[in-house]
Design a protein that fits this description.
The complex is a heterodimer. Chain A has helices at 16-35, 40-43, 45-71, 79-97, 99-103, 110-136, 142-168, 181-188, 191-210, 212-222, 224-229, 234-260, 272-282, 294-315, 323-346, 353-375, 377-401; strands spanning 176-177, 262-263. Chain A is mostly helical. Chain A has 2 domains: 16-344, Orthogonal Bundle (ABC transporter involved in vitamin B12 uptake, BtuC), CATH 1.10.3470; 349-399. In chain A, α9 packs across α10 (212-222), α13 runs parallel beside α15 and α16 (353-375) packs antiparallel against α17. The radius of gyration of chain A is 23 Å and the shape is globular. Chain B has 3 domains: 1-92 and 175-180 and 205-253, P-loop containing nucleotide triphosphate hydrolases (Rossmann fold, 3-Layer(aba) Sandwich); 255-349 and 434-513, Rossmann fold (3-Layer(aba) Sandwich), CATH 3.40.50; 365-429, no CATH class. In chain B, the strands form 5 sheets. A 6-stranded mixed sheet of chain B has the order 6-7-8-3-9-10, with helices on both faces. Chain B has a 6-stranded mixed sheet with strand order 16-19-20-13-21-22, sandwiched between helices. Chain B has a 4-stranded antiparallel sheet with strand order 2-1-4-5, with helices on one face. In chain B, α13 (388-402) packs across α14. The radius of gyration of chain B is 24 Å and the shape is globular. The chains are: A mainly alpha, B alpha/beta. The interface between A and B is large, with 41 and 54 residues.
């Protein structure tokens, strides 16, 4: 009988790991409030909240899509490029339907906006269909199929932008300004993306937990062959999952356009797919498929943005440089902490053998360098030194705890 | 009467394996409780028990996969504590796992020396030396396997011999075999028994885990029986009988199943005419050739055949789960059908329980309820959404009908024993109220008690008018359950017997013919 972590009692509202995330969010907010020299959480609470809420909503919308794809046992690396394509489709559609107003930065009217947004969502549906066709009919691994579109769609979006602008405006351009008041309203009212995120989270939660389709998604991710033999049309389930993933990215793309008042296919959403995957993983999704929850991903997205915000508040200048670093560290820490209990029980070591020995200076240099760059060389050196000592003690403790094996 | 002789220490030589008070707990389950066991050097010590009795846990503790929560383990008189499998290998313990642990993409020689590769003077991998030594090892096991063949291309029986060759190359003094014949054909089993005799002649100690009484009584010097994680007793083979052992295994005496009363045959449900399934990449050219059969309501049709005879392919074709390039006719209640997806077969009230539970049946991330209800979720819909209570009611009924023993409907499925997992999967399909039930080796790897319960269940279903096609690796099972038996050999149908005509000898003759 294999050991199994999950208790079979229904958890109270959230699972244990999700309550831990709630706690982590509270701690991160508390630390920021304490360590921020400007005390912006205390002096401008609304502004800070708005910032975090907007960023969380934008990330969360397509992180929900990534969650569905990951639970179905797949992966979608193309979300960032889909965001760029969605924005471009929206902007170029408006440009085609109302070129004069677009060039004059005038309102284009709600009908045109609606058509443009629908076109973006349609583009998401088409991209999702392309993904699932490549994966189920051509039998490409999801990683390869969406890696191809990650690279391809951004280039396609830029080409689309340039040919549309050269055909419809006097000059060829790699971006289109969007000045319609409807988009401005969305930009100025944070509650709109937040409400959208909330509604979408509820819908996704309902789909995953309370519909046959959702159960089939979990079954597919857990054991694809068994799912097929149980009579589940696995190809159709995958079709839904990838379309959901691409369409949520398309939706997020519209909010990015509104937020930045421009569609810029070269840079918009670049690298964001990894943030979405990170939010899902921090929230408890397993990349092996079959495991994951909507509350987990929502909390994962909040946690990620809160930590990024915390670092920008504490470091002040040039904090965006560290965004990728923070996401990386948060993912590693979240997954590691989820395993600590198991590690201790199974007698697994954090720093085993010669690999562990080499890991000590590696980790020390990494932490020292980060501190040196943010707080000065002296602090960096002392952090590096302290890391070496602490890790060395940890290793010695681990070795003393488990007796040398009988060799 | 006390057969326990682990307290009596006659021989001066230390025990090959000596366990004292070994205990292993998992959340909610005690897998082994105060387990003591002595294995004498050079003997073949059989360990019997139902699934869930703790045999596999015992093996995993011996191989260093699990660490016991209490108790001591001595190998060859020395106290040991295995932290990982490599420790066990160093102590001379080699395990032939039930699910073989070979890398399919590597050659046979590479698998035998995996992790201990031979090197040339330059420090590069010395394939030639490994192949040579591997060939020698395999030859000593009298098997004709080329060391440079891709392991995945071998049949299961040959792969097992590769595992044994690996154990030999480790110079293991203790070899633990975990149900080694569960996936072997009769001739492969016979070859394995000859190999075991050779190992014993070399002085190797063998722990042989099995619940097949025939082989246990042919091979073992002593037999230990486990039940519910506890040691029941250890006896000399000469002092006991298979009935006594199975009695200890289940804690009660199993009467021989009385030949069931004849069932009433209903209308014809299924007819297959001249079914052929091509297999271009194989020299034989076909997986199935010219198969014709029929199935009536209220009837169990047995399909006998050795491994690779095409039993699974036949059922998968009927269920629409295999390749769809077959020729011939499949008639369902007189109408021709060609299923391209299992869904279509389900819609026509056909159900299939596939042979490999873990790989093809279970959803490890869903709980018991989720596993049972997955095919009939539409019955638990309330206003388009799944109703928890509706689903629970559905599952509770199924669990009662099939007799699943589970602590809760929402317990993790992987925590159940093999027999209970299988009952869950059968229950899953019964919820779809099929007319035809295809059972592909449903009792594989299931303990004696659960088997008997499954037999009763299958018989009952049949009496209620279901048509059942049953394949099995165990002939006695087919003989006692089936009304008619067809025999496949290398994709061809070689014989059909009625219940009164069928004997083990006749079936074996047809299966090898």
């Amino acid at each position: 009988m294999p050991p199994h972590q999950d208790s079979f009692r229904q958890p109270f509202l959230l699972r244990r790991s999700e309550w831990a995330l709630v706690l982590a969010i509270v701690v991160a907010v508390g630390l920021t409030a304490l360590l921020d020299a400007n005390h912006s959480y205390a002096t401008r609470p609304l502004e800070s909240l708005r910032d975090i809420a907007r960023n969380t909503a934008l990330l969360g919308i397509f992180a929900l899509g990534a969650t569905v794809v990951i639970i179905a046992g797949g992966i979608d690396l193309s979300a960032g490029s889909m965001i760029a394509l969605s924005g471009t489709v929206c902007a170029t559609t408006m440009l085609a339907l109302a070129p004069v107003e677009m060039m004059g930065f005038k309102p284009v009217g709600p009908a045109v906006v609606a058509v443009a947004c629908a076109a973006s969502l349609l583009a998401g549906f088409l991209v999702g269909t392309l993904h699932s066709w490549l994966i189920t009919a051509i039998r490409l691994p999801p990683f390869i199929a969406t890696l191809a579109t990650l690279v391809g769609l951004r280039s396609f979006a830029r080409a689309l932008c340039e040919s549309a602008t050269s055909a419809l405006t006097p000059t060829k351009s790699a971006l289109v300004n969007v000045a319609d008041p409807l988009f401005k309203t969305v930009r100025d009212n944070v509650w709109i993306p937040v409400a959208m995120f909330g509604v979408l989270a509820c819908i996704t939660w309902l789909i995953l937990t309370r519909t046959v389709l959702g159960r089939h998604i979990g079954a597919l991710g857990g054991n694809e062959q068994a799912a097929r033999l149980a009579g589940i049309r696995t190809d159709n389930v995958k079709w839904f999952a990838y379309c959901f993933g691409a369409m949520t990215a398309a939706l997020a793309g519209l909010f990015y356009v509104a937020n930045e008042s421009v569609s810029a296919p070269v840079n918009q959403g670049r690298g964001h797919e990894l943030n979405a995957i990170a939010a899902a993983v921090v929230g408890g999704c397993s990349l092996a498929g079959g495991v994951g929850t909507v509350p987990g991903t929502v909390l994962g997205a909040i946690f990620l943005r809160v930590v990024i915000d915390a670092v920008s508040k504490i470091i002040k200048t040039g904090a965006d440089v560290y965004e990728g670093l923070i996401v990386g560290i948060v993912v590693v820490m979240a997954v590691t902490l989820g395993q600590v209990g198991q590690m201790a029980k199974g007698g697994r070591k954090l720093l085993p053998g010669s690999l562990g020995l080499c890991a000590i200076p590696t980790l020390a240099i990494l932490s020292g360098a980060i501190v040196a760059m943010t707080a000065g060389p002296r602090a960096g050196a002392s952090v590096a030194g302290a890391s070496v000592v602490l890790l060395w003690l940890l290793r010695a403790w681990e070795n003393s705890r488990t007796p040398a094996s009988s060799m | 009467m006390n057969h326990d002789n682990h307290e009596v220490k006659k021989d001066a030589a230390p025990h090959a394996v000596c366990m004292r008070g070994i205990t292993k707990r998992f959340p909610g389950v005690v897998a082994l409780e105060d387990m003591s066991l002595d294995v004498r050097p050079g003997e073949l010590h059989a360990i019997c028990g139902e699934n869930g009795a703790g045999k596999s846990t015992l093996v995993k503790i011996l191989s260093g996969v699990y660490q016991p929560d209490g108790g001591t383990l001595e190998i060859g008189g020395e106290m040991v504590r295995f932290v990982c499998t490599r420790d066990a290998e160093h102590a001379g313990v080699a395990i032939i796992h039930q699910e073989l642990a070979l890398v399919e993409e590597l050659s046979v020689a590479a698998n035998v020396f995996l992790g201990r590769e031979k090197r040339t003077a330059l420090g590069l991998v010395d394939d030639r030396a490994m192949a040579a030594e591997c060939a020698q090892l395999l030859e000593s096991l009298e098997c004709r396997i080329a060391p440079d063949v891709r392991t995945g291309n071998l049949r299961v029986g040959d792969q097992q011999l590769v595992e044994i060759a690996k154990a030999l190359s480790l110079h293991a003094s203790i070899v633990v075999m975990d149900e080694p014949t569960s996936a072997l054909t009769e001739s492969e089993s016979a070859r394995l028994e000859r190999t075991i005799a050779k190992l014993l002649a070399r002085g190797t100690t063998i722990l042989y885990i099995s619940h097949k009484m025939g082989e246990v009584f042919r091979l073992a010097d002593r037999i230990t029986v486990l039940r519910d994680g506890r040691h029941v007793r250890t006896v000399n083979r000469a002092d006991t009988s298979p009935e006594e052992i199975t009695g200890w295994m289940v804690g009660r005496k199993i009467a021989d199943r009385p030949a069931s009363a004849p069932r009433v045959r209903g209308k014809q449900l299924l007819e297959v005419r001249n079914l052929c399934l091509p297999w271009p990449e194989h020299p034989r050219g076909y997986r199935l050739s010219d198969i014709s059969l029929s199935l009536c309501a209220g009837e169990i049709l047995g399909v006998a055949g050795l491994m690779g005879a095409g039993r699974t392919e036949l059922l998968e074709t009927l269920f629409g789960a295999g390749q769809s390039n077959w020729t011939g006719d499949i008639l369902l209640e007189g109408r021709r059908v060609r299923f391209l997806h299992p869904r279509e077969a389900c819609d026509r009230r056909i159900a299939m329980v596939s042979e490999d539970r873990k790989r093809l049946g279970l959803f490890p991330d869903l709980d018991v309820a989720g596993n049972v209800s997955v095919c009939s979720l539409h019955e638990a819909l309330y206003g388009g959404l799944l109703s928890r209570s509706g689903e629970d009611a559905l599952v509770a009924g199924s669990v009662r009908e099939t007799g699943v023993k589970t602590p809760s409907l929402h317990a993790p499925i992987m925590g159940l024993s093999g027999g209970n997992q299988q009952k869950c999967i059968i229950g899953r399909w019964l919820l779809t109220r099929p007319d035809i039930l295809l059972l592909d080796d449903p009792t594989r790897g299931i303990d004696v008690g659960a088997k008997a319960e499954l037999y009763t269940l299958i018989d009952q279903l049949c009496r209620n008018g279901m048509g059942v096609i049953l394949t099995s690796s165990e002939l006695p099972e087919l003989l006692s359950l089936a009304d008619r038996i067809i025999v496949l050999a290398e994709g061809r149908l070689t014989a059909e017997f009625s219940r009164s005509e069928a004997t083990e000898a006749r079936i074996m003759a047809a299966a090898t013919g």
